[in-house]
Design goal:
The protein is mostly helical and 85 residues long. 62% of the residues lie in helices and 0% in strands. Helix 1 packs across helix 3. The protein is extended. The termini are far apart.
Length: 85
């Protein structure tokens, strides 16, 4: 199967790289025999964690990928972390 070349430039969504790096790290650590099922479980746990904590790991990852990352983090992330504990 061939794919025609295109002049369209596509951008990877913010946080996507960090999200896949997390999955990759866990796959390498666990060495699952069924990677697709493992990935489905990984993302399900990530969704449950996000819903329980109101902190979006993809948004956090996007901040880590941002070359303009500054410290301290924005107020909304600090507030979310403060209400968590």
């Amino acid at each position: 199967m061939s794919i025609a070349a295109s002049n369209t430039s596509m951008r990877v969504p913010a946080g996507f790289r960090n999200l896949l790096e997390g999955l990759t790290r866990e796959v390498l650590r666990e060495q699952p025999t069924d990677v697709v099922a493992f990935a489905a479980q990984y993302f399900q746990k990530l969704l449950e964690s996000r819903e329980a904590s109101d902190i979006d790991p993809v948004a956090w990852g996007a901040m880590l990928e941002d070359d303009r990352l500054t410290w301290p983090p924005p107020e909304d992330l600090k507030e979310a972390k403060d209400t968590e504990g």
